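Narrative of accomplishments. A recurring question from our advisory board has been how the design workflow behaves on a single, concrete structure rather than in aggregate. To address it, we present the structure tokens for one chain from the evaluation set, followed by the sequence designed for it. No filtering or post-editing was applied between the two.
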């Protein structure tokens, strides 16, 4: 695994290197690691039989050849679906992954940003299942758990304070310091609504600051200059290059 380079933001591959390969597939995550991402981001939902599966949408249509809601299918049924062809024929046969599969495969190579798409108000027990997997695989210190459901983050923190949490927010913040809470270590802010001053205010409040989704060199350099902790990107290779080079894109 790459050591953390404190002189620049962490590069977090959003759904894998999702500009180059179908999001959340092994192809996308392998590409992210080839491009030297520091972390891989994954969106998590519960299957009908209570397994933690890695998929963004509530429904299957956009990124698989299935139909209906993810939560309506068992893991066995989800595993039959093609999660690659929608992106390109050469990705045919890519499968939906579970959190456990990704951790087992990648834990020696990369850190994880794991987003709970829903907390226990929608999917009872989802926080307990995630914390249990992170503890069993002994990766609690290499994971940041994200969610728009900040109650879910508090639950995770209460179950295991070693697991870092990041609150996802959409909006122009008036005062990041008011969002500080013992159960949250980072704010994850949407790029279009986030200025360099917001990043600095977040850091002053003692919170780490991740910005999503940053796919352009110039924006990456601006947020890096402001001290952003991490940049969540579909293009980890480009952003890594942009932070190491000051000139125009190659
Ligand atoms: O990691 C932050 C970002 O992934 C949140 O939005 O819709 O891409 O899951 P979304
Ligand atoms: Ca996400």
């Amino acid at each position: 695994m790459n050591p953390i380079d404190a002189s620049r933001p962490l590069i977090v591959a959003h759904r894998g290197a999702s500009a180059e390969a179908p999001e959340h597939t092994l192809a996308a995550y392998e590409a992210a690691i080839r491009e030297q991402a520091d972390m891989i981001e994954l969106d998590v939902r519960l299957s009908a039989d209570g397994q933690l599966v890695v998929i963004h949408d509530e429904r299957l249509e956009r990124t698989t050849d299935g139909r209906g809601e993810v939560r309506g299918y068992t893991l066995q049924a989800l595993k039959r679906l093609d999660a690659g062809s929608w992106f390109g024929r050469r990705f045919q046969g890519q499968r939906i992954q579970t959190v456990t599969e990704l951790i087992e495969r990648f834990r020696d190579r990369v850190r994880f940003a794991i987003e709970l798409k829903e907390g226990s108000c929608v999917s009872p027990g989802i926080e307990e299942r995630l914390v249990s997997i992170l503890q069993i695989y002994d990766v609690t210190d290499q994971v940041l758990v994200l969610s728009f459901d900040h109650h879910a983050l508090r639950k995770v923190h209460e179950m295991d304070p070693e697991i870092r949490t990041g609150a996802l927010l959409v909006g122009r913040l008036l005062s990041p310091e008011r969002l500080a809470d013992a159960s949250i270590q980072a704010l994850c802010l949407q790029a279009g609504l986030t200025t360099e001053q917001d990043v600095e205010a977040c850091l002053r409040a003692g919170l780490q600051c991740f910005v999503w989704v940053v796919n352009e060199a110039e924006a990456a350099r601006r947020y890096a200059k402001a001290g952003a902790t991490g940049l969540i990107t579909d293009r980890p290779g480009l952003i890594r290059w942009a932070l190491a080079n000051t000139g125009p894109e190659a």
